[in-house]
Design brief:
Structural class: alpha+beta
Largest sheet: 5 strands, antiparallel
Helix content: 25-40%
Strand content: 25-35%
Mean pLDDT: 92
Distance between the termini: 27 Å
Oligomer: single chain
């Protein structure tokens, strides 16, 4: 995970995973993916044992650093560092693939690597709004001309970074494409704007392919981004029949590929993203509904580990 010292204990999903795991009797270590080391076919890391409590500023107690053999010393690895989904991240998935499934990696690192969050949703025709993924300015401009009001975002962005709304008469698309190209060779995603976003962007958490609950993320006034990190407000919400239809369509795919803890984004009747790297929302779901998605995650992990013994 990213540095545990810096987390907000009241809102961070990874911290809740740690707190819940500890309460279930599991011992915890934290490591930085940059300490992964592959030697003679064996994968090691430098990690520190931790004990956690929900008191900000006093929320983690560290033990002495240890060198762990990730194939023999641990039962489960939670891969929870935040994007960017860059080559360092991709390399970490290759390394962790050396120990999975003997050591259960959540989520399956090979499938995480194969599932960039804005691309994986395109595997399910009819669930997304009209969407184009491309670096080609001609294709992007043509899509804008045909669909009018659109949203432009970097393919591998996260937490609402770089998301822009362009109305039908907005002349800035080509300039934005040029700006993006100066710093990245990655494609852009352009998507028909969904007016229902003003009522919220729903985050639904699925455990092993099954929906356990949802929260609504409401954008600030006159904003298109609803992500909590950029000013969106969390609110309780119930799953609709359309939400359950979307979950039923993608759930078997997630389960089959070992994508155990997943957060999907739904605006109105449309699926916009399937988040498999470090999806959030579990703390807010627990606060609003009493549903602990991390407890459901640990139950699934424990069952899978028991089945392999």
């Amino acid at each position: 995970m990213d540095p545990i010292e810096a987390v907000n204990v009241a809102s961070d999903t990874t911290f809740l995973m740690a707190l819940t795991g500890q309460a279930r009797g599991h011992s915890l270590w934290v490591y930085d993916f940059r300490t992964l080391a592959l030697e003679d076919g064996r994968l090691f890391c430098r990690a520190v044992p931790v004990k956690v409590k929900p008191v900000q500023g006093q929320h983690v107690e560290f033990g002495p650093e240890q060198r762990l053999d990730l194939a023999t010393d641990v039962d489960v690895i939670l891969m929870r560092q935040d994007p960017p989904f860059d080559m360092a991240y991709v390399t970490a998935t290759y390394l962790l693939e050396r120990v999975h499934p003997r050591t259960l990696v959540v989520n399956n690192p090979a499938e995480v690597r194969s599932a960039p969050e804005k691309l994986i949703a395109t595997l399910f025709p009819g669930l997304q709004p009209p969407t184009l993924v491309s670096s080609d300015p001609v294709a992007l401009v043509d899509f804008h001309r045909r669909h009018g009001d659109v949203v432009l975002k970097p393919l591998h962005g996260a937490a609402g970074s770089g998301v822009v709304r362009l109305k039908a008469d907005d002349p800035n698309l080509e300039a934005l494409i040029e700006i993006h190209a100066t710093g990245s060779r990655d494609p852009l995603v352009i998507q028909k704007f969904i007016p229902a976003v003003s009522a919220g962007d729903k985050r639904i958490i699925l455990i092993d392919g099954e929906p356990v609950g949802a929260i609504n993320r409401i954008p600030a006034k006159d904003q298109v981004r609803s992500n909590l990190r950029v000013g969106g407000t969390a609110a309780p919400v119930e799953l609709t029949a359309r939400d359950r239809e979307i979950c039923a369509a993608i759930g078997p795919f997630l389960k089959e590929r070992g994508l155990i803890f997943v957060g999907i984004d739904v605006i109105g009747d449309y699926l916009t993203e399937i988040n498999v790297t470090s999806p959030t929302g579990a703390q807010q779901l627990l606060e609003f509904s009493g549903i602990d998605a991390t407890a459901a995650m640990w139950e699934t992990i424990e069952a899978k580990r028991q089945a392999t013994r």
